[in-house]
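User: Before I run my own analysis I want an independent prediction to cross-check against. Here's the chain; please return only the structure tokens and, at the end, one sentence I can use as a sanity check.
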Amino acid sequence: MMHGLWVQDQGMVDHLAQLVPLLHECASHVTEGSFEKADFSFKKIRMLTIADGPLQHLSKIIVDSLDHRLLSSIQGLYGALINPSDYFEKSTLRAARHNFFKLNPYLSTGFVTINRAIMEAMEDEKNFLEIKVKSNLCSILKLSHYNFKTLQGAIYVERSLMFNMVELQVVHIVDLSCSAAHPWQWLKLLDDFHGRPGGAPELYLTVLHDDNDFLAEMQSLLSKKAESLEVSFRFISVIGRLETLDFSNLRSTFQIKFGVAVAISCALQMHRLLLVDDNLSSTSIAQLQKMANFTQPKQMASSVCSPASTLNYLQTPSPRTPKLLARLLSAIRALKPNIMVNMEQDADHNALLFRDRFNEVLNYYAALFDCFHAVAAANPGRTDERLRVERMILREEIKNILVCEGVHRHERHERLDQWAMHMEESGFHNVQLSFSAIREGKENLLSFGLKNCQNKEDRGCFLLCWGSTNLYSISLRLCCTDRGMFQDDMLSSATSSPASSVYSPSPSPSNGSWVQELSHDQQSVRLIGLLYQCAAEVSAGSFDRANLCLEHITQLASLDAPHALQRLAAVFADALARKLLNLIPGLSRALLSSANSADAHLVPVARRHMFDVLPFLKLAYLTTNHAILEAMEGERFVHVVDFSGPAANPVQWIALFHAFRGRREGPPHLRITAVHDSKEFLANMAAVLSKEAEAFDIAFQFNAVEAKLDEMDFDALRHDLGVRSGEALAVSVVLQLHRLLAVDDGRRHAATGCLTPVQIIARSSPRSFGELLERELNTRLQLSPDASVVSSLSSHSPAAATAAHPTTSTPKLGSFLSAVRSLSPKIMVMTEQEANHNGGAFQERFDEALNYYASLFDCLQRSAAAAAERARVERVLLGEEIRGVVACEGAERVERHERARQWAARMEAAGMERVGLSYSGAMEARKLLQSCGWAGPYEVRHDAGSHGFFFCWHKRPLYAVTAWRPAASRRGHTRS
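Assistant: Structure tokens:
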């Protein structure tokens, strides 16, 4: 605690001075495989990354990558963790790539330079042919006194050159930039060609990309532009990726005609073809890694290193051109392009040793993050765009460089010298970019107004820099005409190796072979057994056996599997792995949350999908409205407070407008107060409801409270909600009240805490991560036998019994209910998950969660939801709930669902009494099921004993609606 306060008192400069050496120190511990030392470093770095800044953002991503690298040796646990990129959708990834272009001043600069080089290449070739034609015409006149055959041959040569000039008016450009491609580049080129003195040529553009929707959008934009400029244009889409492309006949694939001028443009993609020849097995690399001298990282860790400074170290010698790259370049040579322009990251991220890659990554991405923060600072509206780029583009690049090896490491950026070697070996020599091409690039870079955006020339190539750090290189290449310069063995080896054999690792014959021998039913039975067994091992603190279970589960389960049980198991395996990791807080908290990987807008989108495809929320809104309508009979002034937060939906209150308008006495004066943490949502809700109220001719007011329910000041509730005397008050809470149960357990958990770094390091170093986990667990049990750790792992603890049969409310819930009771509402309607996910015993909680969410996944599987919609609900909503129930403890475990009978005990202890829900409400709910075709597996059960409604799937209750009011013995006036 003192350590944390000390950090907070330091200035930002001191933070940065501490942070960089700590990152090097942590990388050194990861390289050595020291879990304890790395865990200690993770904790120290975490305290220094609370502030908001480019280096802090980068540090969180690097620490996450270091954590993944450390855990990657534990196959079961690491394989069970869901990759954040699994949350990416094509639409959001497309948006992130577009944001990357807007925030990156170098990408548009590269496109401008490439375009100018292409235009000049076409113009130079045209001028050359014109000179040859004029020269030949003079020769024909001089040859008139020679024999007829000589004259005929000269005329044939002249006609061939004229034909080439005609064909040069057809230019075919191939864009191999894939994910870095952007319509802006070619929209500008159309303008440039249109403005040249000779007019625009007939233009063909082939674009390679793995997103069909992107290609369609790009085609539409460029075709409209060409039509407006009256330029003959044809767009050719090729769906795929560069590293998986069939190189055997590129001319056919790209639809390139013989004789036309060809230009190749490739931005930030060619490095993905360097993934083939590491020339060393993973075992040999590991041996080299252990033999490596760690003096350099340790010296960096002990000194104050500026993130902007250049790190000097020996580059890893580049091997001969990898086969996949050689095959591509050989196939491009066969096209006889007039020009090939390549833009690449200018960094040595393809070094063999992890240590060297880490040093380069820290230096390179510190500069890039600084650049993006500077651009976003100059354009305040782009902060969210910057965060999306950091999370979805740059984090994945960094993680791939630092975590992956072999064929899985495709972000293999290299420096200009290394690319020159590859190109020369493959028959492409460097040609200097023209003065005008570089000038246009410089002018574009200056237009951003950032003083650190620098550039320089190196042997005719164009280098783009942030300060003194090189970030990107642009080089122009031409095919060599002398074929004798190539090495025959390189070409033969390149052409004999198909791309697929290089790109896809061959699986081990024994790995997962047992899975193939099982039928689908056998796999399902095996999967369920493994999940229960794994939970038992986690509960017992047996790391090795739990890890083995996770390894088997991941061979049977997948987020993209066709069966609901397989997808559910993948989510639960991730939660169990995180449960294990939570025992080592440094490693656990260093992992970036998968919840933050999804774009913020996907959460409400997923909720809308759940509302559309499943009946539960519709039933909750309908029965809540019915209860409010009955309670407000005869009232002229009604005030409804909606505490549903993320589960709120304007549809509920539009339906209430309908219901109130149908009353015999007419609608009341209605005021709705909504509590939500999104200002945008509240504004939209206000606009929608005001418009509907006007259409129904209902006197209506909307009051917005921007807050989260669990963060509100309940002592000021009357003031915040604007409760007035003379109004009949109704309260609605949908799927939120359980979040107020997290406080007590959180304080108990905080009191016991985790072992301090000093306590961990004071013990001898463990030989394995499993020993570290088991030792820390045992130590905690010895130090605090009645702590939350015990209660979370013991099914017979007093805490478990208390959680199962609560007699008092937690302070947070008690404060809320006391505040609500003081407002004297006529009715309070609550909807909650009908499940016991708040038990103190982990095993019981797991069993309940597995059965509960299996039913929900089954509902989604049987629904009419599209695959993308179902995936959003399963991953963004239900997946996060499952992680909250299974993996979290203390105040972090907010998904504390309880059954209706448990809520009844809490509500009655807080001075509330039940309000019976009428049978007519149940009938209305059943009619809704019938009208929507949901009757059958879905059921509405009216429980007269608890006066509530239960919404069931195949007889299993999943959600419950109950109604309450202040107890008569404590009730004051019905209006305050």
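Sanity check: The chain has a mean pLDDT of 81.
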